[in-house]
Write a structure and sequence with these properties.
By secondary structure, the protein is of the alpha/beta class. It has a domain at 3-144 and 199-257 and 432-517: Alpha/Beta hydrolase fold, catalytic domain (Rossmann fold). Helix content is 41%, strand content 14%. The chain is built from 21 helices and twelve strands. Strands 1-2-3-5-4-6-7-10-11-12 form a ten-stranded mixed β-sheet, with helices on both faces. Helix 11 (272-286) packs across helix 12. The two termini are 27 Å apart.
Protein backbone atom coordinates (compact mmCIF):
# COMPACT_ATOMS: atom_id res chain seq x y z
CA UNK A 1 0.00 0.00 0.00
CA UNK A 2 1.43 3.34 -1.02
CA UNK A 3 1.42 5.82 1.83
CA UNK A 4 0.93 8.75 -0.54
CA UNK A 5 -2.19 7.18 -2.05
CA UNK A 6 -3.56 6.39 1.39
CA UNK A 7 -2.91 9.92 2.51
CA UNK A 8 -4.67 11.47 -0.46
CA UNK A 9 -7.73 9.38 0.26
CA UNK A 10 -7.77 10.05 4.01
CA UNK A 11 -6.32 13.52 4.38
CA UNK A 12 -9.42 15.64 4.07
CA UNK A 13 -11.89 12.96 4.92
CA UNK A 14 -11.14 11.93 8.41
CA UNK A 15 -10.28 13.88 11.33
CA UNK A 16 -9.45 16.73 9.28
CA UNK A 17 -12.43 15.78 9.46
CA UNK A 18 -12.20 14.82 12.56
CA UNK A 19 -13.74 17.68 15.07
CA UNK A 20 -13.86 20.49 14.83
CA UNK A 21 -14.04 23.54 13.13
CA UNK A 22 -15.63 24.34 16.41
CA UNK A 23 -18.49 26.43 15.12
CA UNK A 24 -18.42 27.19 11.46
CA UNK A 25 -19.01 23.70 10.11
CA UNK A 26 -22.30 21.93 9.99
CA UNK A 27 -23.33 18.63 8.52
CA UNK A 28 -24.18 18.99 4.85
CA UNK A 29 -25.07 16.14 2.56
CA UNK A 30 -22.70 15.55 -0.33
CA UNK A 31 -24.42 16.04 -3.64
CA UNK A 32 -22.41 13.41 -5.53
CA UNK A 33 -23.05 10.37 -3.33
CA UNK A 34 -25.30 7.60 -4.66
CA UNK A 35 -28.77 7.35 -3.21
CA UNK A 36 -30.39 4.69 -1.09
CA UNK A 37 -33.90 4.51 0.35
CA UNK A 38 -33.29 4.06 4.06
CA UNK A 39 -37.02 3.82 4.65
CA UNK A 40 -36.89 0.49 2.83
CA UNK A 41 -35.18 -0.96 5.93
CA UNK A 42 -37.49 -1.46 8.90
CA UNK A 43 -35.72 -0.54 12.16
CA UNK A 44 -35.10 -3.60 14.30
CA UNK A 45 -33.29 -4.64 17.46
CA UNK A 46 -31.40 -7.12 15.30
CA UNK A 47 -28.98 -6.31 12.50
CA UNK A 48 -30.63 -7.19 9.21
CA UNK A 49 -27.98 -6.24 6.67
CA UNK A 50 -29.00 -5.52 3.09
CA UNK A 51 -26.95 -4.52 0.07
CA UNK A 52 -27.00 -0.74 -0.33
CA UNK A 53 -25.36 1.93 -2.49
CA UNK A 54 -23.07 -0.68 -4.13
CA UNK A 55 -22.26 -4.38 -4.00
CA UNK A 56 -19.38 -3.58 -1.65
CA UNK A 57 -21.45 -2.12 1.20
CA UNK A 58 -24.34 -3.20 3.40
CA UNK A 59 -26.80 -1.19 5.50
CA UNK A 60 -29.17 -1.70 8.38
CA UNK A 61 -31.12 0.32 10.95
CA UNK A 62 -30.89 -0.51 14.63
CA UNK A 63 -33.74 0.44 16.96
CA UNK A 64 -32.55 1.88 20.28
CA UNK A 65 -34.37 3.60 23.16
CA UNK A 66 -34.68 7.33 22.73
CA UNK A 67 -34.30 7.60 26.50
CA UNK A 68 -32.30 4.80 28.09
CA UNK A 69 -33.71 5.73 31.50
CA UNK A 70 -37.23 5.27 30.16
CA UNK A 71 -37.24 2.65 27.38
CA UNK A 72 -40.98 3.05 26.92
CA UNK A 73 -40.61 6.70 25.90
CA UNK A 74 -40.02 5.97 22.23
CA UNK A 75 -37.17 4.83 20.05
CA UNK A 76 -34.56 6.08 17.62
CA UNK A 77 -33.30 4.27 14.54
CA UNK A 78 -29.53 4.32 14.04
CA UNK A 79 -28.34 4.05 10.43
CA UNK A 80 -25.30 1.82 9.97
CA UNK A 81 -23.23 1.08 6.89
CA UNK A 82 -20.51 -1.53 6.76
CA UNK A 83 -17.76 -2.72 4.52
CA UNK A 84 -18.03 -6.36 5.50
CA UNK A 85 -14.99 -8.44 6.30
CA UNK A 86 -14.49 -11.05 3.56
CA UNK A 87 -13.44 -13.45 6.31
CA UNK A 88 -16.63 -12.74 8.19
CA UNK A 89 -18.75 -13.37 5.09
CA UNK A 90 -16.91 -16.65 4.58
CA UNK A 91 -17.49 -17.72 8.18
CA UNK A 92 -13.75 -17.91 8.82
CA UNK A 93 -12.58 -18.34 12.42
CA UNK A 94 -10.07 -15.57 11.64
CA UNK A 95 -12.92 -13.01 11.56
CA UNK A 96 -12.47 -10.46 14.36
CA UNK A 97 -15.73 -8.52 14.31
CA UNK A 98 -16.75 -4.90 13.73
CA UNK A 99 -14.71 -1.73 14.17
CA UNK A 100 -16.90 1.33 14.66
CA UNK A 101 -15.69 4.59 13.12
CA UNK A 102 -16.63 8.12 14.16
CA UNK A 103 -15.32 10.94 11.92
CA UNK A 104 -15.88 13.74 14.40
CA UNK A 105 -18.13 16.74 14.43
CA UNK A 106 -20.30 16.46 16.31
CA UNK A 107 -22.73 15.82 13.48
CA UNK A 108 -20.45 14.01 11.04
CA UNK A 109 -22.10 11.21 9.07
CA UNK A 110 -20.26 7.97 9.66
CA UNK A 111 -22.36 6.39 6.91
CA UNK A 112 -21.19 8.79 4.22
CA UNK A 113 -17.67 8.73 5.61
CA UNK A 114 -17.31 4.96 5.28
CA UNK A 115 -19.28 4.99 2.02
CA UNK A 116 -16.65 7.23 0.45
CA UNK A 117 -13.33 5.87 -0.78
CA UNK A 118 -11.95 6.72 2.64
CA UNK A 119 -13.82 3.76 4.10
CA UNK A 120 -12.09 1.24 1.86
CA UNK A 121 -8.71 2.77 2.73
CA UNK A 122 -9.45 2.43 6.45
CA UNK A 123 -10.41 -1.18 5.78
CA UNK A 124 -7.02 -1.70 4.14
CA UNK A 125 -5.28 -0.31 7.22
CA UNK A 126 -7.04 -2.42 9.83
CA UNK A 127 -7.19 -5.55 7.68
CA UNK A 128 -9.65 -8.03 6.21
CA UNK A 129 -10.33 -9.59 9.61
CA UNK A 130 -12.63 -6.70 10.54
CA UNK A 131 -15.84 -5.10 9.37
CA UNK A 132 -15.59 -1.32 9.04
CA UNK A 133 -18.80 0.26 10.30
CA UNK A 134 -19.86 3.87 9.98
CA UNK A 135 -22.95 4.96 11.86
CA UNK A 136 -24.91 8.18 11.88
CA UNK A 137 -25.32 9.38 15.47
CA UNK A 138 -28.89 9.75 16.67
CA UNK A 139 -30.59 12.73 15.09
CA UNK A 140 -28.02 13.04 12.28
CA UNK A 141 -28.34 12.39 8.54
CA UNK A 142 -29.92 8.96 7.94
CA UNK A 143 -30.70 8.20 11.59
CA UNK A 144 -34.19 9.03 12.84
CA UNK A 145 -35.82 10.97 14.31
CA UNK A 146 -33.67 13.67 12.77
CA UNK A 147 -32.66 16.88 14.45
CA UNK A 148 -35.07 19.32 12.88
CA UNK A 149 -33.32 22.44 11.74
CA UNK A 150 -33.77 25.32 14.09
CA UNK A 151 -34.75 27.22 10.97
CA UNK A 152 -37.62 25.88 8.91
CA UNK A 153 -35.84 26.39 5.61
CA UNK A 154 -32.85 28.07 3.99
CA UNK A 155 -34.87 31.21 3.32
CA UNK A 156 -35.62 31.65 7.01
CA UNK A 157 -32.01 30.86 7.86
CA UNK A 158 -30.83 33.52 5.41
CA UNK A 159 -33.29 36.03 6.81
CA UNK A 160 -32.04 35.44 10.32
CA UNK A 161 -28.54 35.77 8.88
CA UNK A 162 -26.59 33.62 11.32
CA UNK A 163 -23.17 33.60 9.68
CA UNK A 164 -19.46 34.01 10.24
CA UNK A 165 -19.69 37.58 11.42
CA UNK A 166 -22.16 36.63 14.15
CA UNK A 167 -19.52 34.32 15.62
CA UNK A 168 -16.62 36.69 15.06
CA UNK A 169 -14.74 36.96 18.33
CA UNK A 170 -11.68 38.78 17.05
CA UNK A 171 -10.72 41.63 19.34
CA UNK A 172 -11.47 44.06 16.50
CA UNK A 173 -15.11 42.90 16.44
CA UNK A 174 -15.82 43.21 20.18
CA UNK A 175 -17.58 46.60 19.94
CA UNK A 176 -20.45 44.83 18.12
CA UNK A 177 -20.53 41.89 20.55
CA UNK A 178 -23.54 43.03 22.63
CA UNK A 179 -25.82 42.97 19.61
CA UNK A 180 -24.54 39.59 18.48
CA UNK A 181 -24.92 38.23 22.03
CA UNK A 182 -28.57 39.32 21.91
CA UNK A 183 -29.03 37.44 18.63
CA UNK A 184 -27.65 34.29 20.25
CA UNK A 185 -30.27 34.58 22.98
CA UNK A 186 -32.92 34.67 20.26
CA UNK A 187 -31.26 31.69 18.58
CA UNK A 188 -31.42 29.69 21.82
CA UNK A 189 -35.04 30.60 22.42
CA UNK A 190 -35.93 29.64 18.86
CA UNK A 191 -34.33 26.22 19.33
CA UNK A 192 -36.15 25.69 22.61
CA UNK A 193 -39.47 26.73 21.14
CA UNK A 194 -39.13 24.46 18.11
CA UNK A 195 -37.71 21.44 19.91
CA UNK A 196 -39.49 18.31 18.68
CA UNK A 197 -38.64 16.42 21.87
CA UNK A 198 -35.35 15.08 20.53
CA UNK A 199 -32.85 17.77 21.50
CA UNK A 200 -32.41 16.63 25.11
CA UNK A 201 -31.60 13.09 23.94
CA UNK A 202 -28.81 13.66 21.40
CA UNK A 203 -26.07 14.16 23.95
CA UNK A 204 -22.74 12.37 23.69
CA UNK A 205 -23.49 9.96 26.53
CA UNK A 206 -26.58 8.73 24.69
CA UNK A 207 -24.57 8.19 21.50
CA UNK A 208 -22.08 6.18 23.59
CA UNK A 209 -24.98 4.05 24.84
CA UNK A 210 -26.06 3.56 21.23
CA UNK A 211 -22.57 2.28 20.50
CA UNK A 212 -22.99 -0.27 23.29
CA UNK A 213 -26.29 -1.30 21.70
CA UNK A 214 -24.54 -1.74 18.34
CA UNK A 215 -21.88 -3.93 19.96
CA UNK A 216 -24.49 -6.12 21.66
CA UNK A 217 -26.55 -6.40 18.48
CA UNK A 218 -23.45 -7.99 16.93
CA UNK A 219 -23.55 -10.60 19.68
CA UNK A 220 -20.47 -9.15 21.34
CA UNK A 221 -19.72 -7.55 24.67
CA UNK A 222 -16.75 -5.35 23.89
CA UNK A 223 -16.21 -2.38 21.59
CA UNK A 224 -13.64 -1.99 18.81
CA UNK A 225 -13.44 1.65 17.79
CA UNK A 226 -11.43 4.34 15.98
CA UNK A 227 -12.57 7.89 16.69
CA UNK A 228 -11.18 11.21 15.52
CA UNK A 229 -11.34 14.63 17.20
CA UNK A 230 -14.84 14.94 18.69
CA UNK A 231 -14.87 11.17 18.18
CA UNK A 232 -12.24 11.00 20.93
CA UNK A 233 -14.70 12.62 23.34
CA UNK A 234 -17.28 10.05 22.27
CA UNK A 235 -14.83 7.16 22.65
CA UNK A 236 -13.55 8.40 26.02
CA UNK A 237 -17.12 8.88 27.26
CA UNK A 238 -17.91 5.30 26.24
CA UNK A 239 -14.81 4.11 28.11
CA UNK A 240 -15.84 6.02 31.23
CA UNK A 241 -19.39 4.62 31.09
CA UNK A 242 -18.45 1.08 30.07
CA UNK A 243 -14.85 0.48 31.18
CA UNK A 244 -15.26 -3.29 31.15
CA UNK A 245 -16.47 -3.30 27.54
CA UNK A 246 -13.32 -2.17 25.70
CA UNK A 247 -11.70 -4.63 23.29
CA UNK A 248 -9.77 -2.04 21.27
CA UNK A 249 -10.23 1.74 21.17
CA UNK A 250 -8.15 4.34 19.37
CA UNK A 251 -8.55 8.00 20.25
CA UNK A 252 -6.91 9.98 17.45
CA UNK A 253 -6.61 13.78 17.67
CA UNK A 254 -7.65 14.23 21.28
CA UNK A 255 -9.58 17.12 22.76
CA UNK A 256 -9.32 18.19 26.37
CA UNK A 257 -12.24 16.20 27.76
CA UNK A 258 -12.81 18.43 30.78
CA UNK A 259 -12.69 21.53 28.59
CA UNK A 260 -15.22 20.08 26.16
CA UNK A 261 -17.72 19.30 28.91
CA UNK A 262 -17.13 22.70 30.52
CA UNK A 263 -17.86 24.53 27.22
CA UNK A 264 -14.34 25.94 27.49
CA UNK A 265 -12.25 25.15 24.42
CA UNK A 266 -9.61 27.79 24.96
CA UNK A 267 -6.71 25.35 25.49
CA UNK A 268 -7.48 23.38 22.32
CA UNK A 269 -6.08 26.17 20.14
CA UNK A 270 -2.62 26.60 21.65
CA UNK A 271 -0.64 25.01 18.79
CA UNK A 272 -2.51 26.54 15.84
CA UNK A 273 0.05 29.30 15.23
CA UNK A 274 2.84 26.73 15.25
CA UNK A 275 1.04 24.85 12.47
CA UNK A 276 0.73 28.10 10.52
CA UNK A 277 4.46 28.65 11.01
CA UNK A 278 5.08 25.35 9.17
CA UNK A 279 3.25 26.92 6.21
CA UNK A 280 5.61 29.89 6.29
CA UNK A 281 8.69 27.71 6.70
CA UNK A 282 7.63 25.14 4.12
CA UNK A 283 6.65 27.73 1.52
CA UNK A 284 9.96 29.57 1.86
CA UNK A 285 11.89 26.33 1.53
CA UNK A 286 9.83 25.00 -1.40
CA UNK A 287 10.52 27.88 -3.76
CA UNK A 288 8.19 29.77 -6.11
CA UNK A 289 7.55 26.82 -8.42
CA UNK A 290 5.91 24.79 -5.67
CA UNK A 291 4.50 27.51 -3.41
CA UNK A 292 2.59 30.27 -5.15
CA UNK A 293 2.81 32.55 -2.09
CA UNK A 294 6.58 32.20 -1.89
CA UNK A 295 9.02 34.67 -0.41
CA UNK A 296 12.64 33.84 0.41
CA UNK A 297 12.11 34.27 4.15
CA UNK A 298 9.29 32.82 6.30
CA UNK A 299 8.93 36.16 8.06
CA UNK A 300 8.20 37.83 4.75
CA UNK A 301 5.41 35.35 3.99
CA UNK A 302 3.90 36.02 7.40
CA UNK A 303 4.02 39.76 6.75
CA UNK A 304 2.22 39.29 3.43
CA UNK A 305 -0.54 37.25 5.10
CA UNK A 306 -0.90 39.85 7.85
CA UNK A 307 -1.18 42.53 5.15
CA UNK A 308 -3.98 40.54 3.49
CA UNK A 309 -5.80 40.27 6.81
CA UNK A 310 -5.58 44.04 7.24
CA UNK A 311 -6.69 44.72 3.68
CA UNK A 312 -9.74 42.43 3.89
CA UNK A 313 -10.63 43.81 7.32
CA UNK A 314 -10.76 47.29 5.79
CA UNK A 315 -12.41 46.21 2.55
CA UNK A 316 -14.05 42.78 2.01
CA UNK A 317 -13.45 41.33 -1.45
CA UNK A 318 -16.16 40.19 -3.88
CA UNK A 319 -15.82 36.60 -5.09
CA UNK A 320 -17.40 35.17 -8.20
CA UNK A 321 -16.74 31.79 -9.81
CA UNK A 322 -19.08 31.39 -12.80
CA UNK A 323 -17.84 27.88 -13.54
CA UNK A 324 -19.05 26.51 -10.19
CA UNK A 325 -21.28 28.65 -9.96
CA UNK A 326 -20.38 30.22 -6.65
CA UNK A 327 -20.35 33.79 -5.47
CA UNK A 328 -20.26 35.90 -2.34
CA UNK A 329 -18.02 38.16 -0.30
CA UNK A 330 -14.77 37.19 1.36
CA UNK A 331 -14.61 39.21 4.54
CA UNK A 332 -12.16 39.08 7.42
CA UNK A 333 -14.04 36.51 9.49
CA UNK A 334 -14.40 34.18 6.51
CA UNK A 335 -10.76 34.57 5.47
CA UNK A 336 -9.49 33.88 8.97
CA UNK A 337 -11.64 30.77 9.41
CA UNK A 338 -10.62 29.49 5.96
CA UNK A 339 -6.91 29.80 6.74
CA UNK A 340 -7.59 28.02 10.02
CA UNK A 341 -9.42 25.20 8.22
CA UNK A 342 -6.46 24.65 5.92
CA UNK A 343 -4.26 23.96 8.96
CA UNK A 344 -6.16 20.70 9.46
CA UNK A 345 -4.59 18.91 6.47
CA UNK A 346 -1.36 20.75 5.61
CA UNK A 347 0.07 18.13 3.25
CA UNK A 348 -2.89 18.49 0.92
CA UNK A 349 -4.16 21.96 1.72
CA UNK A 350 -1.03 24.11 1.92
CA UNK A 351 -0.34 24.26 -1.84
CA UNK A 352 -3.98 25.24 -2.40
CA UNK A 353 -3.84 27.82 0.38
CA UNK A 354 -0.72 29.33 -1.17
CA UNK A 355 -2.42 29.70 -4.53
CA UNK A 356 -5.54 31.17 -2.95
CA UNK A 357 -3.55 33.74 -1.00
CA UNK A 358 -1.58 34.75 -4.09
CA UNK A 359 -4.80 35.20 -6.07
CA UNK A 360 -6.28 37.25 -3.23
CA UNK A 361 -3.16 39.40 -3.17
CA UNK A 362 -3.88 40.06 -6.86
CA UNK A 363 -7.51 40.91 -6.10
CA UNK A 364 -9.13 37.54 -6.90
CA UNK A 365 -10.97 35.98 -3.91
CA UNK A 366 -12.72 33.21 -5.87
CA UNK A 367 -10.49 30.27 -4.87
CA UNK A 368 -10.41 31.08 -1.16
CA UNK A 369 -14.16 31.59 -1.19
CA UNK A 370 -14.54 28.21 -2.89
CA UNK A 371 -12.47 26.62 -0.12
CA UNK A 372 -14.44 28.26 2.68
CA UNK A 373 -16.54 26.06 4.93
CA UNK A 374 -20.37 26.16 5.04
CA UNK A 375 -21.82 28.61 7.50
CA UNK A 376 -23.97 27.63 10.43
CA UNK A 377 -23.79 26.46 14.02
CA UNK A 378 -26.96 24.45 14.50
CA UNK A 379 -25.60 20.93 14.94
CA UNK A 380 -22.69 22.16 17.04
CA UNK A 381 -25.12 23.96 19.33
CA UNK A 382 -27.44 20.98 19.67
CA UNK A 383 -24.65 18.68 20.89
CA UNK A 384 -21.77 20.85 22.16
CA UNK A 385 -23.90 23.33 24.07
CA UNK A 386 -26.19 20.64 25.49
CA UNK A 387 -23.19 18.53 26.56
CA UNK A 388 -21.42 21.45 28.17
CA UNK A 389 -21.90 23.29 31.42
CA UNK A 390 -24.55 26.01 30.87
CA UNK A 391 -22.97 29.28 29.75
CA UNK A 392 -24.45 32.42 31.28
CA UNK A 393 -21.72 34.85 30.21
CA UNK A 394 -22.63 38.49 29.69
CA UNK A 395 -21.22 40.38 26.70
CA UNK A 396 -18.53 41.86 28.96
CA UNK A 397 -17.54 38.40 30.23
CA UNK A 398 -17.45 37.03 26.68
CA UNK A 399 -15.28 39.94 25.56
CA UNK A 400 -12.78 39.16 28.30
CA UNK A 401 -12.84 35.48 27.30
CA UNK A 402 -12.13 36.44 23.69
CA UNK A 403 -9.15 38.52 24.78
CA UNK A 404 -7.78 35.58 26.76
CA UNK A 405 -8.25 33.33 23.74
CA UNK A 406 -6.40 35.79 21.50
CA UNK A 407 -3.42 35.57 23.85
CA UNK A 408 -3.40 31.79 23.40
CA UNK A 409 -3.37 32.02 19.61
CA UNK A 410 -4.07 34.37 16.72
CA UNK A 411 -6.88 31.90 15.95
CA UNK A 412 -8.34 32.18 19.45
CA UNK A 413 -11.54 33.63 18.03
CA UNK A 414 -12.33 30.22 16.51
CA UNK A 415 -12.82 28.62 19.93
CA UNK A 416 -14.14 31.73 21.66
CA UNK A 417 -16.99 31.53 19.16
CA UNK A 418 -18.19 28.31 20.80
CA UNK A 419 -18.66 30.19 24.05
CA UNK A 420 -20.66 32.89 22.31
CA UNK A 421 -22.88 30.37 20.55
CA UNK A 422 -23.62 28.51 23.79
CA UNK A 423 -24.37 31.70 25.72
CA UNK A 424 -27.96 31.59 24.49
CA UNK A 425 -28.55 27.85 24.60
CA UNK A 426 -31.34 26.78 26.93
CA UNK A 427 -31.62 22.98 26.61
CA UNK A 428 -29.40 21.38 29.23
CA UNK A 429 -30.36 17.77 30.01
CA UNK A 430 -28.99 16.01 33.05
CA UNK A 431 -26.51 14.00 31.00
CA UNK A 432 -23.26 12.30 31.96
CA UNK A 433 -20.37 14.77 31.83
CA UNK A 434 -17.68 12.81 33.58
CA UNK A 435 -15.37 12.31 35.23
CA UNK A 436 -13.85 11.03 31.99
CA UNK A 437 -11.46 8.48 33.44
CA UNK A 438 -11.44 4.72 33.93
CA UNK A 439 -9.42 1.54 34.27
CA UNK A 440 -10.49 -0.11 31.03
CA UNK A 441 -10.65 -3.83 30.25
CA UNK A 442 -8.02 -3.27 27.55
CA UNK A 443 -5.62 -0.34 27.23
CA UNK A 444 -6.49 2.45 24.80
CA UNK A 445 -4.20 3.59 22.00
CA UNK A 446 -3.94 7.38 22.04
CA UNK A 447 -2.59 9.12 18.91
CA UNK A 448 -1.49 12.74 18.75
CA UNK A 449 0.40 14.86 16.25
CA UNK A 450 3.26 17.03 17.43
CA UNK A 451 1.54 20.09 15.94
CA UNK A 452 -2.26 19.94 15.75
CA UNK A 453 -4.28 23.13 15.29
CA UNK A 454 -7.28 22.09 17.39
CA UNK A 455 -6.30 18.99 19.43
CA UNK A 456 -2.85 19.64 20.87
CA UNK A 457 -0.44 16.88 21.84
CA UNK A 458 -0.72 18.01 25.46
CA UNK A 459 -4.37 16.93 25.45
CA UNK A 460 -3.38 13.47 24.24
CA UNK A 461 -0.92 13.25 27.14
CA UNK A 462 -3.72 14.17 29.54
CA UNK A 463 -5.86 11.38 28.05
CA UNK A 464 -3.11 8.85 28.79
CA UNK A 465 -3.26 9.90 32.45
CA UNK A 466 -7.06 9.56 32.46
CA UNK A 467 -6.92 5.96 31.25
CA UNK A 468 -4.17 4.09 33.10
CA UNK A 469 -2.35 1.57 30.94
CA UNK A 470 -3.08 3.42 27.70
CA UNK A 471 -0.16 4.38 25.48
CA UNK A 472 0.54 7.51 23.47
CA UNK A 473 1.74 7.16 19.89
CA UNK A 474 3.17 10.47 18.69
CA UNK A 475 3.19 11.32 15.01
CA UNK A 476 5.80 13.95 14.21
CA UNK A 477 3.79 16.10 11.82
CA UNK A 478 1.53 19.12 11.59
CA UNK A 479 -2.17 18.61 10.97
CA UNK A 480 -5.31 17.43 12.70
CA UNK A 481 -5.16 13.75 13.73
CA UNK A 482 -2.89 11.12 12.23
CA UNK A 483 -4.84 10.46 9.04
CA UNK A 484 -4.09 13.88 7.60
CA UNK A 485 -0.49 12.82 7.07
CA UNK A 486 1.08 9.83 5.27
CA UNK A 487 2.81 7.64 7.86
CA UNK A 488 3.29 3.94 7.23
CA UNK A 489 4.69 3.77 10.76
CA UNK A 490 1.46 5.00 12.33
CA UNK A 491 -0.73 2.72 10.22
CA UNK A 492 1.44 -0.26 11.08
CA UNK A 493 0.89 0.41 14.78
CA UNK A 494 -2.86 0.82 14.20
CA UNK A 495 -2.99 -2.52 12.37
CA UNK A 496 -1.00 -4.33 15.04
CA UNK A 497 -3.15 -2.89 17.81
CA UNK A 498 -6.43 -3.99 16.24
CA UNK A 499 -5.17 -7.39 15.13
CA UNK A 500 -3.23 -8.63 18.13
CA UNK A 501 -3.49 -5.90 20.77
CA UNK A 502 0.13 -4.83 20.50
CA UNK A 503 0.71 -1.36 21.89
CA UNK A 504 3.66 0.81 20.81
CA UNK A 505 6.62 1.05 23.14
CA UNK A 506 6.16 4.06 25.41
CA UNK A 507 7.76 7.08 23.77
CA UNK A 508 7.32 5.83 20.20
CA UNK A 509 7.40 8.60 17.59
CA UNK A 510 6.39 8.00 13.99
CA UNK A 511 8.18 10.23 11.52
CA UNK A 512 6.85 11.64 8.26
CA UNK A 513 9.06 12.22 5.23
CA UNK A 514 6.56 13.71 2.76
CA UNK A 515 7.29 17.39 1.98
CA UNK A 516 4.59 19.96 2.69
CA UNK A 517 4.91 21.27 -0.86
CA UNK A 518 5.58 18.15 -2.97
CA UNK A 519 6.46 18.26 -6.65
CA UNK A 520 3.31 18.04 -8.71
CA UNK A 521 4.53 14.84 -10.29
CA UNK A 522 4.40 13.16 -6.89
CA UNK A 523 0.63 12.89 -6.98
CA UNK A 524 -0.21 13.86 -10.53
CA UNK A 525 -2.54 16.64 -9.47
CA UNK A 526 -2.38 20.32 -10.19
CA UNK A 527 -3.74 22.78 -7.65
CA UNK A 528 -7.06 23.14 -9.47
CA UNK A 529 -7.91 19.44 -9.36
CA UNK A 530 -6.73 19.13 -5.76
CA UNK A 531 -8.87 22.12 -4.85
CA UNK A 532 -11.85 20.38 -6.43
CA UNK A 533 -11.09 17.28 -4.34
CA UNK A 534 -10.85 19.43 -1.23
CA UNK A 535 -14.25 20.96 -1.90
CA UNK A 536 -15.78 17.53 -2.57
CA UNK A 537 -14.45 16.17 0.71
CA UNK A 538 -14.91 19.19 2.94
CA UNK A 539 -18.18 17.81 4.36
CA UNK A 540 -15.91 15.64 6.52
CA UNK A 541 -14.12 18.65 8.01
CA UNK A 542 -16.38 19.09 10.99
Amino acid sequence: MKSTLLFLQLALGAASLASDLPVFSRYSRRQDVPTFDWDSIAPSTTLNWVTCYSEATQCTRLSVPLNYSDPGAGSAAIALLRIPSPLGLAGSPAYRGPVLINPGGPGGSGVEYVLSSIGSEIASVIGEEFDVIGFDPRGVANSTPRILSIFNNDVERAEFGLGYNDYDMEVSSLPTLPGRWARMQVFGSLAQGRDNGLLSHVTTDNVARDMMSIVKAHGREKLQYWGFSYGTVLGATFAALFPDNIERAILDGVLYFDGYYAADRINDIVDADKVLQTFFDGCAAAGPDLCAFHSPQPSAIKQRLDALYERVLRQPVPAYSPSLPQYGVLDYALLKSTVFAMLYAPYLAFPILAQGLKLLEDGDASLLYQLAMPRGGEVIAVVDCADGTPVSDSPATLAEYAKQASMKSSFGSQVAAVRLLCSGWKIHPNSFKGPITANTSYPLLIIGNTLDPITPLAAAKEAVKAFPGSVLLTQDSPGHASVTTPSECTYRHVRNYFLNGTLPIVGTICNVTTPLFPPRSANGNDSTSVAAEYVKRRMFIV
